[in-house]
């Protein structure tokens, strides 16, 4: 198996990194290229950028962000938010992103996963699953998607997804730890790599998730501070997690 | 040095272009056979499916151009799917004939998790590089492996890597620099 991955997640809106609670009260916390490059220097294995505004105006700036990140960052990155068609996804990859992440659009029209996988390859297609109590949520987790989480994960795999980014919405931002029970069931249900998300508060939480899943998404635990990633990596190594030597 | 990156609708051309630029090497996006045939170094990037990629090469006449430069002994670097396309054949998409520049075939991975995505150590170098693939080469031309999977293969003037040096941070940049210095 490849090494366990640490993936800082940056929420972006209108070309800036923002921070907010459940997509509300967004405030500007920096430039996506600067912060992305700093995380890369701090030892990130990949980056995820999520456009949390996903308006028409923002998607043009998202493409610009993807292009600028690609110029300055030499590790892989995923772009998500507002991708509804193969054309949207192809444009993001053309700009230099390595993967796209789809969520609500795939729930609305699951065939999108097959179209993306056929044209771009499964390795470029991440399906993000927001979940509460074994139910999938859509539209930034505001609506019930009328699907059961593990069943939807299996369907994503069958349709050609390359990875699953699974966020336990009720844990998100709580810093109480990942939903290990769900991650365990997903590990057994699919053979795709799974990126665990939601609930990281300590290095031990991250280590627990990496014992089950292939990667951990890091959001509030980092506080948009790349230096925190350096110490987190040291703490994880002390806990016996084998991380990439990024030098 | 003239570096031509094959632009045939199935490669992360911009990522390769930017990685080379960071090393001070300018490259062109080559869609015409003559650009590929005559460059000092040709790069065959590739992501996506083998069937579409081969069709994209053939539609632009780049397959012939790659064969011609190989016959003339000019170096070509194949990345990821670009390595797999250089083999005799791949079992992807129900079986697709490759360029035949490197003996062997690409087969579906039998790893625990497929696609195989992430940083993995390449031996004998001992450094980790970025991989993202569902198929891999089986070839007598292998010169480096990662978890038993072919990571580098070299045959005559063709050098192929399964990993993505253009996305492998500092280790990838060092690898690309060595590659450029050999041309």
Keywords:
heterodimer; A: alpha/beta; eight-stranded parallel β-barrel; 9 helices; 37% helix; 27% strand; B: 183 residues; alpha/beta; Rossmann fold; four-stranded mixed beta sheet; 6 helices
Kindly name the structural category of chain A: alpha/beta
CATH level 1 class label of chain B = Alpha Beta
**How many structural domains can be distinguished in the coordinates of chain B?**
1
How far is the N terminus from the C terminus of chain B?
A: 8 Å
Give the total of beta strands of chain A: 12
Characterization of this structure:
The complex is a heterodimer of chains A (247) and B (183). Chain A has 247 residues and is of the alpha/beta class. Chain A has one domain (5-238): Aldolase class I (TIM Barrel), CATH 3.20.20. Chain A has nine helices and twelve strands. Chain A has helices spanning 32-41, 56-72, 86-94, 104-108, 111-120, 149-158, 180-189, 203-210, 226-238, and strands at residues 5-13, 16-21, 24-30, 47-51, 77-80, 99-102, 125-132, 135-138, 143-148, 163-168, 194-197, 215-218. An eight-stranded parallel beta barrel of chain A has the order 1-4-5-6-7-10-11-12, surrounded by seven helices. The mean pLDDT of chain A is 93. Chain B is an alpha/beta fold and 183 residues long. Chain B has one domain (3-181): Rossmann fold (3-Layer(aba) Sandwich). Chain B is 30% helix and 32% strand. Chain B is built from six helices and 13 strands. Chain B has helices at residues 13-22, 33-38, 50-59, 62-71, 81-86, 169-181; strands spanning 3-6, 27-30, 41-44, 76-79, 89-90, 96-97, 105-108, 116-122, 127-133, 135-138, 142-146, 149-155, 158-161. Chain B is globular. Chain A binds chain B through residues 1-3, 5, 40, 45, 67, 70-71, 74-76, 93-96, 98, 118-124, 162-163, 191-193, 214-215, 244-247, and chain B through 12, 14-15, 18-19, 22, 47-49, 52, 81, 111-121, 127-128, 130-134, 147, 164, 166-170, 172-173.
